[in-house]
Amino acid sequence: MKANELRDLSAAELNTRKKDETDALQKLRFNRAVAGQVENPAKYRHHKREIARLNTVLREKNGQ
């Protein structure tokens, strides 16, 4: 999701999306530790960037 689209969401929705992205990243890391490899390693980058976008928009909304 683009940052412009994220700015339209409420803080509660952003926190929910952030939790979902963090959980997805944690599952990828766990699967890599157990299985030794993952299907698509580019998903790490996608989830990490999405979390960073969410953090940025949350900071903007909180006025920090």
Q: Could you explain how this protein is built, in words?
A:
- The model has no long low-confidence stretch (mean pLDDT 91).
- The two termini are 22 Å apart.
- The protein is elongated, with a radius of gyration of 13 Å.
- It has helices at residues 3-7, 11-35, 42-62.
- The chain is 80% helix and 0% strand.
- It has a single domain (3-62), classed as Helix Hairpins.
- It is mostly helical and 64 residues long.
- Helix 2 (11-35) runs antiparallel to helix 3.
Summarize the structure.
Helices cover 80% and strands 0% of the residues. By secondary structure, it is mostly helical.
Map the helices and strands.
Layout: H1 3-7, H2 11-35, H3 42-62
Helix pairs in contact: 2-3
List keywords for this structure.
single chain, 64 residues, mainly alpha, Helix Hairpins, 3 helices
Rg calculated over all Cα atoms? 13 Å
- Tell me the number of helical segments per DSSP (H or I, 4 or more residues long): 3
Structural class: mainly alpha
CATH class equals Mainly Alpha
Oligomer: single chain
Helicity, as a percent range: over 70%
Strand % is under 5%
Sheet with the most strands?
none
CATH topology, by name, is: Helix Hairpins
* CA-CA gap between termini: 22 Å
| Mean of residue pLDDT values | 91
The total count of strands amounts to 0
